[in-house]
From TrEMBL:
This is Uma2 family endonuclease. Pfam families: Uma2. GO terms for molecular function: endonuclease activity. CDD domains: DUF820-like. Keywords: Endonuclease, Hydrolase, Nuclease.
Length: 143
């Protein structure tokens, strides 16, 4: 997660008007449902400092734990893609050292792949991130 958390300089170099929120604002799915993911990348005009919800999330990241696995891989995965701006949903499994990448594909279909190495391509917003940068070092404790 160290890459996403410290990615403001990378966004600036790439000319991307994006902000990274860690355990910060939430996302409305509909008028009755909201979530507060571990990390959100939002691109576009900057949010006010006191914003409680983002309105244009592009990338959503959840860190898997035994208590949240069922929700993160099921209902949340489906619901996040109900938000039109969401292009990528990443679920980081620190114990199995896998990043599950769901992305909006052709015609709005959700495409899924599990990665344990290589490079993650997030377009939009136009980022390439080594999968290893999203995982804890080998032997590190999970959440």
């Amino acid at each position: 997660m160290r890459t996403l958390v410290g990615d403001m300089p990378r966004f600036a170099r790439a000319g991307l008007p994006c902000e990274v929120f860690v355990e910060g604002p939430g996302i409305w799915i509909d008028r009755a449902t909201s979530y507060q993911p571990d990390v959100i990348i939002q691109c576009g005009p900057r949010l006010p400092g006191d914003a409680r919800f983002v309105d244009r999330p592009v990338v959503i990241v959840e860190i898997l734990s035994p208590s949240t696995a069922y929700r993160d891989l099921g209902r949340k995965a489906r619901n996040y893609f109900r938000v039109e701006s969401v292009a990528h949903y990443l679920v980081v499994d620190p114990d199995d050292r896998i990043v599950s990448h769901r992305r909006r594909g052709e015609g709005g279909a959700v495409v899924s792949e599990d990665l344990s190495a290589g490079e993650l391509i997030l377009d939009p917003p136009g980022l390439r991130i080594p999968v290893a940068d999203l995982l804890p070092p080998p032997g590190a404790e999970g959440p």
